[in-house]
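## tool: complex_structure
## caller: assistant
## args:
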Amino acid sequence: MVEKRTIILVTLATLVWASIATSSAAYYYLEQIKYADQAKKEQQLMNELAANYSISATRRNLLSEDYGILLGEYQWLVGENYSVLMGNYEKMLLKLKSNYTSTLNEFPELNKTYSSILDESRTFSTKAAVTKEEFGSLLDEFYELFTALALKDLVGYLSPMSEIEVSLCIDYGNLTIEWHNTSTSPGITLFDLTREIAKVEYSYWPTMEPGHILVDSINSHKEGFWIWHYWDDIENKWIFGPVGCDAWILKDNGIYNWTCVK
Amino acid sequence: MHNTSKGPSKIALIGVLTALCLVVQLSPRPPNVEFTSLFTFTVGFIFGSFVGVWFGGFVMFVNGLLSPWGFGGLNIPFQIVGMTVLGLIGGLYRRYLQGGYSSTRFYVEVAVLGAFLTMLYDLITNFGVAVSYILIGMHPTLAVMTALAYGAPFSFIHVFSNLAVFGIAFLPLIKALNHVMMVKNLG
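## result:
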């Protein structure tokens, strides 16, 4: 005959075991659902990335082909007046806009570059004669813009897949210093990040290379010139920004600084 | 004369135990490895269910406010209720034991009882977590299921650590406390 106390003890032990086993099974089940859901979403993102990559590559190749043909015509043209090529150039420019409309709308500095090239090409179109140097310069500007747009386009598809961590310091030069530690999309430039976290006024300089943007004010502070630096991890010091802020692509764990100097 | 000296000694001993329990509870320790359940059960066992209930409730109230794991928030009432159950059962267990027991059997019995009460405490506090899920708009059934399921790894550690703590420490602790009480009473 089993004692009553033993039965109670065994019952309690069974209850403990049953409770832990049930909740562990439920935990395992929920975790499995979560991981399956995550895997499905990641697969969906990968499929979208593959499809978008294909579209982006086709778009880039078609425009490259047009550019290659026009460059060939430019290089093999007999004579000194290149105005005959202006029609094809403008067509190629319009094609560029129609293919990268959303990217141009998203990045104002690239849109300004596009408008500047378009104005320049229209000016040349009204001229009776266009020199080899003038047309060559137009082609270079087009190629630079085209490369920047294609890069932004590709990086835009990558952004839902990953993020980078960056730190930006804004030194107003009046002992007010702000630090912004943030996550952002890969491929973003210092100009894009600054616009994301602060109110920025800027001017566009078509002749400045690489990058055409000079920042005039950050958060309405314009008592001086805004210059930028990046932190060099190897030399452990701030390095003066060697290019326009719109041409500097941020790296993961990068540290950047805007300083207002008088 | 005897009764007047016993009261203050008892209160002093409960005060020392409360302080000791709070120090241990608020010290940095692995998650869900704790000695408050043991202390509460023991206080209930030695001084009766009423004292055990108040002891457990008070310690968990302070813990909810000052815990190194953060403010207990909505879960504080559930933690208090969970711990008072341990104090209550501690007192009831002593009454139930009035028939004598062998040491080995007692170790096992207390270990299993400790694990069961810990599981009960976890069920109550997980229900508190479920209430917070319900308040943010989750369906009640799903909230309870989710809270119980995601509490499982913590519950696992809690139950097995208390199985060991109760099994190993309860008998030496009540022996020590009985000894202190006896010395006080003789004095």
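## assistant note: The first strand of chain A starts at residue 164 and ends at 171. The CA atoms of residues 152 and 187 of chain A lie 7 Å apart. Handing back to user.
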